[in-house]
């Protein structure tokens, strides 16, 4: 079955092969006019990638998942403008301030403190609206109600984000925290009276960014390590494999606990530790692909041309090993998201002030009387991971050369 | 036609992909009578394999078949899976081209064969074993009892193909479909397998549908021939008639496509480009914990050769004779022992960095035009690769050079930004030649450059190589098992067998008066064009 006369994808001419009438062989050269060099035309995507993109788009579920995920991630990238305890813009005395971007002390709005203005305070709001009226310290509600403006000043305004709480804003709620969802807090508050929706928005962004950073770093290290092993083989391979075996059997959780105890918790330390124990994931696959490809004739041809080892590895072999690598990536990405969540859940993850979905799950466990916490955590993870799985399912199918789309 | 075993009428096969439709087989009709051998001949891409596979619906899901295929009054197009399974392997058997990949490498011979016996006849235990021994004996495997526990890799290519034939015969089929069964084999083995098939055909009253691109084989084995081109049967008729009086222009072209002529003479006073003296390539066999060397695989023993400017040395031999190993050693791509003198300098033992400047002067063209071009690089990147290493120059200058060389090897320079899969086999081989030639090398190793190509394309490539040689005074080391091509291209010939040089000398002398039995056997297999007695029975 090795030789079918059918147009095997990627090999067979789906578009007819370019037929050049074979001129008298060896001709051209000097007696013929010099051949015209065509100007470079390089489409943005190579034809192969164009085909993959078309195949991906035909998978409706994957395509729409990508769009939804893209919108969600794009929105959360601007989380500061979506959920924040500072207004997006402030108009005060005819001038425009942007509190999210810059620091303004309360004195700039006619207040007393030189610390940053607390925009959620009714007094500060009154100062801004009234143009710095002294009476605001006595009865701000009445002044806002009446719309009084200081002499010689213009009426001010505040443009709030849709959710006027940041992930770490501790809100003044009536009754005990966690409080149930209401018109102020759409998903309720958690056990320290922080708005859950704001925390979900920031937590989503943090998970995805953490995952992207970790995935890129582990992939780069894993691909280089796997490429070196597979390309050189022999003793290099043998020693490296044993090192990896020992390394992967290290109990990473204990190392994380010890390191955090010594160095304190931080985002970048967690990234470092996750990469430290995550890079062997891709090594096996890349190594296998390189072991297979190193005896291919195009590699041998490159070697006969005198191409250096590194160029052969990364110019000739890696692009052909990428398909297997790309199919492996989804597992790394979803795995990293759950790693972060479970570390947070166990209390060994990010600092407790950070907006973490894992910490939300932990709170849900501790506050079973507040089911909105559990439901929020569950649906956030379920939607995020499902979207990613659908997208990667589409990517994997698009990369499969045998899969045909009518 | 009451005795027709297989009748195909108005067969159309289309492949649909990405919205585009490829019409692989167009309105094909033929029939195979009982005890008759019908050959389908055509170049690659002509739809012959697709036609064969469609008979028992073995095509992939993207294929759409319409028309009529009847096997003994049973309609096979649109037949139920149950009926197809009954027919497959039982009434219609297949032999494929590549015996190594058609056999499961993890099963012993006994298991390979017993599987289908159990499936279709319910034979197990001693009965099955008896039948297996009978079959192996029938296909000419010596001492079958001792071979039952052998794995495919322990057999030679010819033996594997015999096992494949035994598997195909296991259930006493009426029709045997052989898809290029001898293409991957050496010429002498090829002849043996063809004899076996012919003998089986008369003994078992088999009908055979034989698919090949090799007209020499067709002449030996077929009763009737269908010539296919671009999915259509352009001519059909009895073998003798087609060969003696072809009507269609395409058939005439196929018949005439044979590498002929002789190489251009070597210019007077040509310098020696490369020389070896008793070059030895032994791979150590290491065993045990301490990797002590306990023996050697003797790939090449004491090979002495020299090649001058404008001269071709042909290295001939069957697979495993060490011809490719020798060429790779001369290019210093694998380790060897003994002096290798290139351009007056001993390059044996030079380190990678010291070798790199010399690489520009020695180039290689490989057999498989699909495997030797990286599928992720454009043609321009592939051809210009050597320039980026060995010479400076801007990107535009390099593109101009690529355009020049592409025109020279007969490719349209306008296609330089395309990817290799958009080219046909012959065009790809031209790309590989362009890649080797762009550095203006002194020595080019040609490792079976024509073996994977169709005959008509082969002829063009041979002519191209000859023209390039006389224009630039290139020295060729030409490796091939195809003696016709060797004859058309070589000044000197070296015959190798299992690592030893059995005969070497001027091409004319060796071809006209071979000294050893081995060389004579090779010649006989290659030039024996006349039909043997089997074809007429």
UniProtKB/TrEMBL annotation, chain A:
One of its GO terms (cellular component) is plasma membrane. The chain crosses the membrane at residues 62-83, 208-232, 244-262, 268-286, 323-350, 370-392. InterPro entries: MetI-like, MetI-like_sf, OppC_N. Keywords: Membrane, Transmembrane, Transmembrane helix, Transport. Residues 204-396 form the ABC transmembrane type-1 domain. Residues 1-44 are annotated as: Disordered. CDD domains: TM_PBP2 (cd06261). This is ABC transporter permease. It comes from Palleronia pontilimi.
From TrEMBL, chain B:
SMART domains: AAA. InterPro entries: AAA+_ATPase, ABC_transp_ATP-bind, ABC_transporter-like_ATP-bd, ABC_transporter-like_CS, Oligopep_ABC_C, P-loop_NTPase. One of its GO terms (cellular component) is plasma membrane. It is found in: Cell inner membrane. It is a peripheral membrane protein. Keywords: ATP-binding, Nucleotide-binding, Transport. Residues 8-255, 285-523 form the ABC transporter domain. GO terms for molecular function: ATP binding; ATP hydrolysis activity. It holds the Pfam family oligo_HPY. GO terms for biological process: peptide transport; transmembrane transport. Signal peptide: none annotated. CDD domains: ABC_NikE_OppD_transporters (cd03257). It comes from the Bacteria. Belongs to the ABC transporter superfamily. This is ABC transporter ATP-binding protein. It comes from Palleronia pontilimi.
């Amino acid at each position: 079955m090795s030789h079918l006369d059918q147009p095997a994808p990627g090999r067979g001419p789906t578009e007819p092969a370019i037929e050049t009438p074979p001129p008298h062989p060896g001709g051209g050269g000097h007696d013929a006019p010099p051949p015209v060099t065509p100007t470079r035309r390089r489409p943005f995507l190579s034809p192969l990638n164009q085909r993959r993109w078309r195949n991906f788009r035909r998978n409706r579920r994957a395509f729409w998942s990508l769009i939804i995920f893209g919108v969600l991630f794009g929105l959360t990238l601007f989380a500061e403008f979506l959920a924040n305890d500072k207004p997006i813009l402030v108009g005060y005395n005819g001038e425009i301030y942007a509190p999210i971007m810059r620091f303004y002390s309360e004195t700039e709005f006619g207040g007393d403190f030189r610390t940053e203005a607390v925009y959620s305070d009714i007094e500060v709001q009154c100062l801004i609206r009234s143009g710095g009226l002294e009476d605001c310290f006595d009865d701000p509600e009445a002044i806002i109600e009446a719309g009084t403006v200081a002499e010689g000043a213009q009426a001010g305004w505040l443009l709030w984000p849709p959710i006027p709480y940041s992930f770490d804003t501790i809100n003044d709620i009536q009754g005990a925290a966690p409080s149930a969802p209401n018109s102020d807090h759409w998903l309720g508050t958690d056990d320290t009276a922080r708005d859950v929706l704001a925390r979900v928005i920031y937590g989503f962004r943090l998970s995805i960014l953490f995952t992207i950073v970790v995935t890129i770093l582990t992939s780069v290290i894993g691909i280089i390590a796997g490429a070196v092993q597979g390309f050189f083989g022999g003793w290099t391979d043998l020693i490296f494999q044993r090192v990896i075996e020992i390394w992967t059997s290290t109990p990473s959780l204990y190392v994380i606990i010890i390191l955090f105890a010594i160095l304190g918790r931080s985002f970048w330390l967690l990234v470092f530790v996750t990469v430290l124990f995550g890079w062997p994931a891709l090594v096996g696959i890349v190594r296998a692909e390189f072991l297979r490809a190193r005896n291919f004739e195009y590699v041998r041809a490159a070697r006969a041309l005198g191409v250096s080892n590194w160029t052969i590895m990364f110019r000739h072999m890696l692009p052909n090993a990428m398909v297997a690598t790309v199919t492996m990536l989804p597992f790394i990405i979803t795995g990293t998201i759950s790693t972060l969540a479970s570390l947070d859940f166990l209390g060994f993850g990010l600092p407790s002030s950070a907006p973490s979905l894992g910490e939300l799950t932990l709170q849900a466990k501790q506050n079973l009387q507040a089911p909105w916490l559990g439901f929020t955590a569950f649906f956030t993870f379920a939607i995020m991971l499902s979207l990613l799985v659908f997208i990667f399912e589409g990517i994997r199918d698009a990369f499969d050369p045998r899969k045909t789309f009518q | 036609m009451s005795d027709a075993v297989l009748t195909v009428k108005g067969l159309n096969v289309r492949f649909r992909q990405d919205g585009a439709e490829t019409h692989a087989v167009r309105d094909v009709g033929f029939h195979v009578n009982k005890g008759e051998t019908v050959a389908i001949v055509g170049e690659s891409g002509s739809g012959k394999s697709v036609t064969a596979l469609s008979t028992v619906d073995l095509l992939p899901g993207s294929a759409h078949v319409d028309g009529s295929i009847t096997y003994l009054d049973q309609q096979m197009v649109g037949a139920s899976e149950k009926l197809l399974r009954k027919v497959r392997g039982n009434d219609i058997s297949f032999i494929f081209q590549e015996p190594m990949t058609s056999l499961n490498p993890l099963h012993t011979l006994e298991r390979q064969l017993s599987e289908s016996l159990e499936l279709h006849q319910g034979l197990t235990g001693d009965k099955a074993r008896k039948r297996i021994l009978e079959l192996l004996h029938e296909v000419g495997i010596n001492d079958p009892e001792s071979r039952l526990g052998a794995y495919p890799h322990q057999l030679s290519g010819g033996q594997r193909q015999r096992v494949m034939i035994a598997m195909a015969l296991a259930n006493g089929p009426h029709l045997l479909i052989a898809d290029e069964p001898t293409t991957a084999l050496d010429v002498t083995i090829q002849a043996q397998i063809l004899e076996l098939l012919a003998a089986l055909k008369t003994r078992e009253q088999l009908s055979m549908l034989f698919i090949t691109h090799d007209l020499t084989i067709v002449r030996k084995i077929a009763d009737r021939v269908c010539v296919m081109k671009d999915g259509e049967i352009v001519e059909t008729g009895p073998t003798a008639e087609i060969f003696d009086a072809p009507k269609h222009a395409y058939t005439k072209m196929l018949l005439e496509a044979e590498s002929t002529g002789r190489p251009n003479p070597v210019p007077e006073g040509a310098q020696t480009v490369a020389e070896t003296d008793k070059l030895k390539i032994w791979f150590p066999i290491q065993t045990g914990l301490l990797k002590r060397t306990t023996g050697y695989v003797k790939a090449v023993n004491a090979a002495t050769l020299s090649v001058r400017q404008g001269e071709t040395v042909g290295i001939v031999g069957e697979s495993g004779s060490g011809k490719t190993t020798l060429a790779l050693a001369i290019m210093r791509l694998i380790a060897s022992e003994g002096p290798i003198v290139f351009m007056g300098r001993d390059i044996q033992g030079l380190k990678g960095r010291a070798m790199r400047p010399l690489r520009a002067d020695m180039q290689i063209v490989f057999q498989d035009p699909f495997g030797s071009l990286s599928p992720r690089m454009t043609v321009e990147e592939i051809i210009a690769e050597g320039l980026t290493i060995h010479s400076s120059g801007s990107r535009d200058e390099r593109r101009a050079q690529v355009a020049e060389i592409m025109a020279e090897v007969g490719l349209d320079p306008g296609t330089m930004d395309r990817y290799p899969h958009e080219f046909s086999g012959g065009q790809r081989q031209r790309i590989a030649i362009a890649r080797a030639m762009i550095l203006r090398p002194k020595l080019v190793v040609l490792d079976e450059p024509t073996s994977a190509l169709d005959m008509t394309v082969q002829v063009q490539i041979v002519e191209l190589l000859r023209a390039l040689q006389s224009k630039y005074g290139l020295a060729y080391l030409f490796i091939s098992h195809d003696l016709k091509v060797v004859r058309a291209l070589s000044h000197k010939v070296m015959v190798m067998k299992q690592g030893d040089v059995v005969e070497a000398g001027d091409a004319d002398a060796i071809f006209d008066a071979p000294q050893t039995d081995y060389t004579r056997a090779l010649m006989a297999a290659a030039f024996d064009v006349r039909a043997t007695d089997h074809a007429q029975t």
